[in-house]
Write a structure and sequence with these properties.
Blueprint (H helix, E strand, L loop, with lengths): L1 H4 L13 H22 L4 H4 L10 H24 L10 H6 L1 H5 L2 H21 L2 H4 L2 E4 L4 E4 H26 L4
Antiparallel strand pairs: 1-2
Helix pairs in contact: 2-7, 2-9, 4-7, 4-9
Length: about 180
């Protein structure tokens, strides 16, 4: 069950990252909208309603969650780049996934959101310098300060984590990948 829930493993907090690693992680973030589009575009409505694991979200909810999460991430980066260690606003992602748009909105809406959020976020990420990556935000639930360099790693992991949820489901079910 752990492998179904964490197909690429759990994110490891508190690591250090080189500029080359950060650049690669930004490429992972930038690539996500097309990767999701390519895999989800092959699925029919019934397949979109399939949970990626027992008691897990449906493919539709995963795609809609990624859009919610990455819109929040974009805002968190903007806050950290324009304020001194701002306290970010956490949200209940599991409850967001149960809202009507999380459960029933066409995946195309979230794919379009991701495309444009990632274009803007990517422009910011690709223009950041070492001092920018050292800027921080504070997460009040975890009581942690996040350097933007670590946040890049987290959202690169998050991108691949959810992409692999869908990909692994497709492979298990014999659907096109």
């Amino acid at each position: 069950m752990e492998h179904l829930q964490y197909p690429i493993g759990r994110f490891e907090y508190g690591q250090t990252y080189t500029p080359a690693q950060t650049k690669s992680q930004i490429q992972t973030i930038n690539a996500l909208p097309s990767k999701l589009f390519n895999i989800v575009n092959t699925l029919n409505e019934s397949q979109l309603e399939t949970p990626y694991r027992p008691n897990g979200w449906t493919v539709r909810q995963v795609v809609n969650h990624v859009a919610d999460s990455h819109m929040n991430a974009n805002i968190r980066f903007r806050l950290a780049l324009t304020e001194e260690n701002p306290t970010i606003k956490p949200y209940e992602e599991a409850l967001w996934a149960e809202l009507p748009d999380g459960k029933t909105a066409p995946v195309e809406w979230s794919l379009q959101l991701l495309k444009y959020v990632h274009l803007r976020w990517g422009l910011v990420l690709n223009s950041m310098n070492e001092a920018d990556f050292a800027r921080t935000y504070f997460h009040p639930e975890t009581k942690r300060r996040f350097e933007l360099r670590e946040a890049v790693a987290l959202y690169a992991w998050h991108s691949e984590h959810h992409y692999q949820h869908i990909r692994q489901l497709c492979l298990r079910e014999g659907w096109p990948v």
